[in-house]
Amino acid sequence: xxxxxxxxxxxxxxxxxxxxxxxxxxxxxxxxxxxxxxxxxxxxxxxxxxxxxxxxxxxxxxxxxxxxxxxxxxxxxxxxxxxxxxxxxxxxxxxxxxxxxxxxxxxxxxxxxxxxxxxxxxxxxxxxxxxxxxxxxxxxxxxxxxxxxxxxxxxxxxxxxxxxxxxxxxxxxxxxxxxxxxxxxxxxxxxxxxxxxxxxxxxxxxxxxxxxxxxxxxxxxxxxxxxxxxxxxxxxxxxxxxxxxxxxxxxxxxxxxxxxxxxxxxxxxxxxxxxxxxxxxxxxxxxxxxxxxxxxxxxxxxxxxxxxxxxxxxx
Length: 315
Description:
By secondary structure, the protein is mainly α. 68% of the residues lie in helices and 4% in strands. A two-stranded antiparallel sheet has the order 1-2. The chain has a two-stranded antiparallel ribbon with strand order 3-4. This is Mitochondrial glycine transporter.
């Protein structure tokens, strides 16, 4: 019998077969691999659920002539609600999940790589999350995210371009071939600097705020099955808000460089353009949908990851 497939409006398909029962991996696989599975499993739900916010964020950072906008001080200033309504009007509800396949291809293994790298690094240090100090948490988060960010930068480029509406790719492999043929390796890795400047500090700051917030709470709350999930999610929300705001400028530069690599060959040229065109506020374009998405996505991913790792005895 063939595997069931989920088909999106753009014609791309992904396998939606029943996931592996992670409890069965407790005795069969290496702890790092189990961490990868738990992370990938947790990333799947959050990626699908919050994809519309990521799409709106990308469109906000790259307003086009197709977006109905409002003029403020002589400049075109599309708003979050305006872009959301415009997408629904032109592309219907399914259009809010545009770029879902590259998002899943990037985020699901990306979350898995992050959690498995984090688990491996902690085991080398002989520590668990409850023992991490602020500096150790930042360092581990930065290193783990850097490892996964470098490995998945080609998919990050494709995801950004597809969501922007500027490029018309028909498939993931078609996009990879098109970029490599036209721009070479440089095209597949453009915006790597700003991507790491966004993701690595975000993960480092997030892990620091997350672990420190948990350490400040009574242990009884964390050990209680009834309250553990709520506590983990709340700690994730607090950590996500702080980390998202601190790293939004790098996200803006990353979007510009990946959409227009010829116009913005480096982060400095992108920064100058943003400052001259939009002023200081330009570095926080798309901050609201990004903050909502990253905060809820990270909080959900960590909550699911904590529950899965506890159930398979990984913690």
